[in-house]
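Training component of the fellowship. As part of building independent skills, the fellow (R.M.) carried out the full modelling exercise for a liganded target. The chosen ligand was NAP. The inputs are recorded below so that the supervisory panel can assess the work.
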Amino acid sequence: MDLGIRGKRAIVCAGSKGLGRGCAMALAEAGVDLILNARGADALAAAANDIAAATGVSVTPVAADITTAEGRAAVLDAAGEVDILVNNAGGPPPGMWSDWSREDFIAALDANMLAPIAMMQAVLPGMIDRGWGRVVNITSQSVRAPIATLGLSNSARMGLTGFVAGTARQVAPNGVNINNLLPGIHATDRAESLDARMAQSEGISVEEARARRSATIPARRYGSSEEFGAMCAFLCSTHAGFIVGQNILLDGGACNISV
Ligand code: NAP
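Fellow's submitted model of the complex:
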């Protein structure tokens, strides 16, 4: 399927690895030029080179922390006018409700709520003026089915979800579509570190931890970054103009909900 977005420009935040990289590759395969962000310059340069070599699009790497005002300014300055924004950042650490201070909450809100909101506020006016835009926010299945140990993540992502619910409907009349993609467990560095944490706490091998977590998913496996990226690219396509303010689960059936 031709996604109809060849020649458009996208910012992909936190995109040198994992789900963000999957989104970047899928957009590049659709002919979209990229401004690709992550903090670590070496992995970012390698990802940018790989994506450009595989697809022929232009990929501009911007090594910056997207959770800071300076980092966002660097990305936005390099980007100029963009048609597509993919918001993403690392997730907060797990813990107990009693573990977290005000500072911990502020850090989580900065990373997973206020940073994506600031990026949207920066690019939406141009998209509205030009009458076309797409924003995809990478959130989590925990928005639909909160995970007990991820209180910081649950809190910040719920806040972002609330902002998007209203904003998506305010900008839709201008041809701008904002949606959220909710990953369940995907085979990325983050999933591997959670497997390792479970293995250590339960005294089992990493393979056993992974097998136990896979068993909780009706599809009986982890998702892939390629599958995730394909859905992101579709949401950014010309075919997705009637999809507004949705929270789309990609979780192999793990959240058993009927609507
Ligand atoms: P990952 O494999 O660890 O990759 C994270 C990417 O984000 C890397 O490219 C990393 O590069 C970049 N990054 C992290 N913090 C950043 C920052 N402050 N500024 C700019 N770039 C940053 O993670 P993932 O599994 O793809 O997860 C992506 C998001 O989905 C996270 O918020 C995660 O909590 C959420 N999620 C993941 C899963 C899953 O199973 N994988 C499930 C639910 C939710 P640098 O470190 O070099 O900056």
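The panel noted the following from the submitted structure. The two ends are 28 Å apart (CA to CA). The pocket of NAP is lined by residues 14-20, 37-40, 43, 65-67, 88-91, 138, 140-141, 183, 185-186, 188-191 (CB under 6 Å).
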